[in-house]
Structures are given as structure tokens and as C-alpha cells.
Amino acid sequence: MSRQGTAEKATTTLWRPTGPKELELVRGSGWRAWPARLPQQPFFYPVLNEDYAIRIARDWNVKHDGAGYVTRFAVESAFLARYPVRQAGGETILELWVPAEELEEFNAHLVGPIELVHEFR
């Protein structure tokens, strides 16, 4: 929907599998931002399809954190063009590698809230 003559920006839907600690930080942001990476985390990895996010949350996060979650969020497509799509395995295992130092700018290009869409225990 456009308002007052401004065009709506095109968005891309991304998913992020996450554990309980990161999810609490997202909740604490009002579902509006991803938390800063830890020193040993040089990249933020959103993924391009829901099935891949489900597999990570269900098969990795549950095993390591006791619970796994899948979130969905939209980002301005024009902004995302700076990040090449990386194939991390099979044909549908696609992700973006956002350098940790760019995460604040990445968050500024989120459109709408981060949504919790799946939970695994």
C-alpha cells in the first residue's frame, strides 16, 4: 500500500533459524531488530527458504539449545542486492552472509516486524 504518493518498496522474505537466547533478544527489540553478533560470529546468516530454516531449527538448534525457532521477516530488496546468494549445500540450501559490522544497517532495512513462525522442542 502506498501512502501520500510514496511508492511501496519491494521486499524479499527471509527466514532465520534461531535458538532461545537469540529469540529473547529479538523479542526484547520489539521484534524489530537482530542482535549484534558475538565476537566469534563474523556473519549473520538469514536463509532464503522456509524448509531450510526448519531443518536447521529442528535438527541443530533443538539438539544444541533444547529448542529451535524459525522466524520470517522482510527486507528491502534493493538493499539485499549487495549480498550475493550463497549455496551452502544442496540446491535449496541458500543463504546470505551479512558481515557482523553491517547488521545495524541491515536492521534499518527491515520492513515490518520479525515474526515467529515455527517452534521445535
UniProtKB/TrEMBL annotation:
Top-rank taxon, per record: Bacteria
Protein name: ADP-ribosylation/crystallin J1
Protein source organism: Streptomyces tubbatahanensis
Phylogenetic placement of the source organism: Bacteria, Bacillati, Actinomycetota, Actinomycetes, Kitasatosporales
